[in-house]
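Fold this sequence, please.
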Amino acid sequence: MEFFDLIKERYSVREYKDKEIPAELLEKVLDAGRIAPTARNCQPVRILVARSKEAVAKMNELTPCVYGAPVVLIICADTNESSSQPCGRSFAEADATIAATHIMLAAADAGLGTVWVGRFDQKEVKEALSFPDELVPFALMPIGYPSDTSVPNPRHNENKELSEIVKYF
């Protein structure tokens, strides 16, 4: 699929098939996150993969937004490895966000669906999964094959005009 068709057609999937993702396919999608750019190439992104029934059940306890997906990615950054140069602020969240976007688009290209989930308590996730202090979860991403009845949100194609969001100076 052409890139612009992919980004227009990709949508947040909230209903998944009960179908396992082949390991090779999941690894290919995860690799898109690995090669995502990071500030000063510090590569602080860490991706935890909840794939077992028990792990997915744990994720269901932490957010109502798993939607029956067979896998949930927890996209994090190690704040000790994140760049804060030269402006003195951490780029951990931006780096994790870029990686998550790469994963989301690679998944769509592979015929998988995802939904970006921000509806979770970072502290609860860290405690439930015994994260070290420096590892911060920034997004949860259920991933799997969209169900046959999965459809985009009715507002999916409602976008502002380019002239409303871009200003030249």
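The chain has a mean pLDDT of 95. DSSP finds six helices and four strands in the chain.
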